[in-house]
Amino acid sequence: MRIALLTAGSRGDVQPLVALGRALARAGHGFTLVAPRGFAPLAREHGVPFHGAGPEDWPTPDDVAERVRRGEFGDAANLRGWPLLRFAYDLFARNMTRFTADALAACEGADAVGSASLTAFAGHSIAEKLGVPYFHAVPQPAMATRELPSPIFPPGPSWVPGYNRLTYWATERVVWRLNRESAASLRRDALGLAPYDGWVFDRVRREAPPVLTGVSPSIVPRPRDWAPNYHMTGYWFLDAPDGWSPPPTLAEFLASGPPPVCVGFGSMPSADPAADLRSIVAALERAGHRGIVLSGWAGLDAHARDLPATVLALDAAPHAWLFPRAAAVVHHGGAGTTAAAFRAGVPQVVVPVTADQPFWADRVRRLGAGPAGIPRKRLTAERLAAAIDRAVEDATRERARELGARVRAEDGGARAVEILERALSGRAKGAPVAGHALPFRSSGT
Predict the structure, then answer these.
(1) Sheet holding 311-314: strands in order across?
(2) How far apart are CA 63 and CA 396, in angstroms?
(3) Alpha-carbon torsion (342, 346, 347, 349), positive or negative
(4) Which of 92, 95, 19, 108 is closest to 53 using CA atoms?
């Protein structure tokens, strides 16, 4: 098979598709990763065929982070919850028509088009234009079920009868409101297609494309009421690039004492990175742990002067390499970071901000792999220190180790490829994909 994989957003949105593409390549299939041009270095690091799409000046994730910190996007650094999600979608939607036009060229000749959440309308429309099957690939359980709420809604009221199903009804309307204008534009201006006729999610349900959920069933069991074409494959992990080795400062720090607590908030911006770093350092001192602080979009390492010898600030390091060497991981609850911590078998403290992050914080707590999450707006040195203390208790560490062993025994990429081979084998262009299916949605980073 020849597959085009479309994705965009932060690294957390792109990296799982790189891993899925590598699994396709290992099985002898051809693929091209289609993503904004700023991800070319990531693709090159992992030897992935890459096609850049979108405007030349479409900022890379790091560019966005720096511009947020400089105040070029107004009060974005202070946004939380739904306003932050809306800001991210608005920023993204401005470039989707050009992204779609560029992606079309990369998809010509493909046997199928796959898409992550943020590029779902583009991928689905390109597949329609070319008359090839479409499939959806997501890093969280995003399809309707009575057993779980939609990941972008609060998990707390899940026990209320009807709540879970209602959250998926509401998710469809939120996603369409955020994407309606860009979906119409990309179909009209980039592809020459008519607007979606009727409720787009009903159309997708009728078409029933394969939906691959890159989550371990040991972490989220497959809901019993999912349709047959919804698949919980296991995680799609991307290890450190071949030949990668830690910088000397990191290797020396790890060798100089007990395992540290790793702290980083990924693609979540910060209104006051210096204050955040002071709180992190104070929490580590209170809890009696060494620490490694990963900068992320908050730019924490820019304020790392005069750190104590027990704390090291880094721009970044591969989670697959670093997390197994940690005593615990403090993070924002992005799907990829949570997955990496589960795989490493280390306790987690989740500090959620928006989108699916509260869902993953709740999952960590329910599974006993860490304490209850601390919403970012309530984060203090005292609360973080107490959470770290609970995370490193013997029972929590043992539970995290058990879950890590289960996750490492799975091969989600291989499982996803097997599913695609069965679904797409021998399918002529334009032929529908059989099954019974459901909607796509936005993902947190």
Answers:
(1) 311-314, 291-294, 261-264, 328-331, 348-350
(2) 38
(3) negative
(4) 95
Dihedral sign for Cα 44, 48, 54, 58, please: negative
Q: Which two tokens stand for residue 153?
A: 């809604």
Reference 297, options 49, 8, 5, 9; nearest CA is: 9
CATH class of 248-408: alpha beta
* Cβ neighbours, 10 Å, residue 190: 21
Q: Does residue 193 sit in helix, strand or coil?
A: coil
Q: Is 261 helix (H, G, I), strand (E, B) or coil?
A: strand
Q: What is the pLDDT of residue 9?
A: 84
Secondary structure of residue 50 in the 3-state scheme: strand
Q: Where in the chain is the domain with CATH 3.40.50.2000?
A: 2-58+95-235+411-424, 248-408
How far apart are alpha carbons 182 and 201 in whole angstroms?
Answer: 16
CB 373 within 8 A of CB 364: yes
Residue type, position 365, single letter: R
Q: Which secondary-structure segment (H or E) carries 64?
A: helix 61-69
Contact between 429 and 130 (Cβ < 8 Å):
yes
Per-residue HEC secondary structure of 90-129 comes to: HHHHCCHHHHHHHHHHHHCCCCEEEECHHHHHHHHHHHHH
Is 2-58+95-235+411-424 assigned to CATH 3.40.50.2000? yes
Q: How far is CA 1 from CA 24, 134, 159, 423, 431, in A?
A: 9, 13, 43, 11, 15
Q: What is the number of other CB atoms lying within 10 angstroms of the CB of residue 425?
A: 9
Instruction: Split the chain (445 residues) into runs of 10 and give each run's mean pLDDT.
Output: 92 92 95 94 93 82 62 55 65 84 95 94 96 95 95 92 95 89 94 92 91 97 95 95 90 97 80 83 96 77 75 91 97 94 98 91 98 93 97 97 98 97 69 32 32
